[in-house]
Write a structure and sequence with these properties.
This protein is an alpha/beta fold and 240 residues long. The chain folds into two domains: 154 residues, HAD superfamily/HAD-like (Rossmann fold, 3-Layer(aba) Sandwich), CATH 3.40.50.1000; 78 residues, DNA polymerase, domain 1, CATH 1.10.150. 48% of the residues lie in helices and 11% in strands. It has ten helices and six strands, in the order βαααααβαβααβαββα. The protein has a six-stranded parallel beta sheet, with helices on both faces. Helix 9 links the parallel strand 4 and strand 5. Helix 5 packs parallel to helix 10. It starts with 10 loop residues before the first strand and ends with a helix.
Length: 240
């Protein structure tokens, strides 16, 4: 049984990429033509799965570097793994591609509704400039925006969630009044559980097997709520 009704929370913290912004489509839009130019007949899913471990490794090894640099490093390592060339121009272009990644069609409307009920916080593994480009697509005013650039580390590091906890304390919100909303089990739900933060899974890949651009989280998790989309989540709040 859920600990409380959704309406009892006061703040929602969101992962952005994979939850609100369709980062897998954005990444695949770059990787597919790059792979084809190198003679690699790989599907989007194959490329995303191969790519996922390189981004997670880069984020762990270079926590203070901005996200465009992480993307460039990840592409270079993917190229090494696949025996494909990566030019400096391609690495820079991929690093700068975040603002081009599309929002999920339901993100804006759902967030606009939820903003009437909750304070909305972004906790994202990107830099400020990249998120600013994405937020033009979301077109929502967030109470707080916390990025890896601000924090100096990348999820799933505990430091990112400690930073979130400090922010809600600043806002006068108790930990039990916060619900973390995310797609990635690896980046978000596993560390949220470690910190004792309630979480809600937006399972965007509910009809696709595998983990795609996020690493396998390993094991099973007891997640309080699961919805297949932001629209379903907003509808559930409305129904309460």
């Amino acid at each position: 049984m859920n600990r409380k009704d959704l309406k009892d929370f006061k703040a929602l913290s969101f992962d952005c990429y994979g939850t609100l912004i369709d980062w897998e489509t954005g990444i695949a839009q770059f990787l597919l033509p790059w792979a084809a130019s190198n003679g690699l007949p790989l599907s989007a899913e194959e490329l995303l799965t191969a790519y996922s471990k390189h981004e997670a490794t880069a984020e762990a090894e270079f926590p203070a570097e901005k996200y465009p640099s992480i993307l460039a490093k990840s592409l270079r390592q993917l190229g090494i793994e696949l025996g494909a060339s990566v030019s400096d121009a391609q690495a820079r272009s991929f690093g700068a591609s975040v603002p081009d990644w599309p929002a999920f069609p339901d993100s804006h409307e759902a967030l606009t509704y939820l903003a009437r009920k909750f304070q909305l916080i972004i906790l994202s593994n990107v830099d400020r400039q990249s998120f600013a480009g994405s937020n033009k697509r979301l077109d929502v005013q967030f109470t707080s925006i916390l990025t890896a650039e601000d924090i100096g580390s990348y999820k799933p590091a505990d430091r990112n969630f400690e930073y979130l906890e400090a922010e809600i304390q600043r806002l006068g919100i108790q930990k039990e009044q916060l619900l973390h909303v995310a797609q990635s089990l690896f980046h978000d739900h596993v560390p949220a559980k470690r910190r004792g933060i309630a979480s809600l899974w937006i399972n965007r890949r509910h009809d696709v097997p595998g983990w795609g651009a996020t690493p396998d989280p390993g094991g099973s998790l007891d997640i309080e709520w699961t919805f297949n989309s932001m629209a379903d989540f907003a509808a559930a709040v409305a129904s309460e």
